[in-house]
Amino acid sequence: MHLPLGFTLHILEETSSTNDVCLTLADAGAPNGTVVFTHHQTAGRGRQGREWYSRPGSSLTFSLLLRPNAEELDLLSRFSLLGCSALVDVLAKHYQLPGLIKWPNDVIVHGKKICGVLMEALWQGQTPQAVILGMGVNIAKDAYPPDVDLRYPATSIEAEAGILPQPMVLLEQLLAALEQTRKSLSTDDFIRAKNAQLAFRGEWVTLEENTDAPRKVRLLEIDQDGGLWVEEENGTHAKVYAGELSDSVS
Q: For the chain, which terminal residue's Cβ has fewer other Cβ atoms within 10 angstroms, N or C?
């Protein structure tokens, strides 16, 4: 494979978590663009500590180390959107698939989850020294066990496009897209472009926020700080920073 300039690849046959490996490398001084890829992740995790299921060879599982520049230091919430948006671009360009960003950190195709993104940071005091962008993309039809009770319906590139890409080819495509998309990360245009890729925009959805009871809201747009503006049933607007969205409305 031919990685874009500025990326360094570490390939592991098996590991518990590529994010954990990448965090260790970051703490040891690894440079921006360090990539940790594994054929099999045994203890991957999603947002809020949820388990990420991975079958050997059926998905693209990797983590990318990014060193925020001065303009990006206060924009960490945008990095998850960066990963999601890059995959949406790759799906459209290379696989003719209509991916959308399911706020805050998933990509869906035809209403089913095809990718999850986990962003973590390495801090020195109050200053982020590194951002770790972990991504898991379902490639093959057997990427997700059918007997597992998933929080959201899942799909894969093979199931949607009839194409089974090689993980390394997809990784190369994604890194190129990430590099290109990051150029606008600190601009207002970045959020405007992400809103154009936002799933359920203008629709009524179910929002689960922390331990509160699920409620019906209308999804409006992503704010410049990464928060999500929604309309409550009483017509007021609120901004949320974490939660789980579902298109099922009771």
A: C
Are residues 25 and 36 in contact, defined by beta-carbon separation less than 8 angstroms? Answer: yes
CA 15, 17, 22, 23 dihedral sign is negative
**What domains can you pick out in the chain, each with its CATH number?**
8-196 (3.30.930.10), 204-246 (2.30.30.100)
Pairing mode, if any, of strands 237-240 and 127-138?
A: unpaired
Query: What does pTM read for this prediction?
Result: 0.92
Looking only at the bridges linking them, the beta strands covering 8-12 and 34-38 are: parallel
Cis bond upstream, residue 153 (ω within 30): no
> Is 46's pLDDT higher than 60?
no
Cα 222 to Cα 27, 156, 203, distances in angstroms: 32, 26, 14
Q: How far apart are CA 162 and CA 239, in angstroms?
A: 39
In angstroms, the CA 41 to CA 53 distance is 8
203 to 44, 59, 64: CA distances (angstroms): 32, 31, 33
Does the structure show a pLDDT above 60 at 147?
A: no
Sheet holding 215-222, edge to edge: 237-240, 228-231, 215-222, 204-208, 244-246
Paired tokens of 183: 């150029």
Confidence of residue 213 (pLDDT cuts 50, 70, 90): confident
Spatial CA neighbour of 174 closest among 67, 42, 37, 45: 37
pLDDT tens per residue across span 154-163: 999 999 999 9
Contacts of 240 (CB under 8 A, 6+ apart): 207, 209, 227, 228, 230
SS3 131: strand
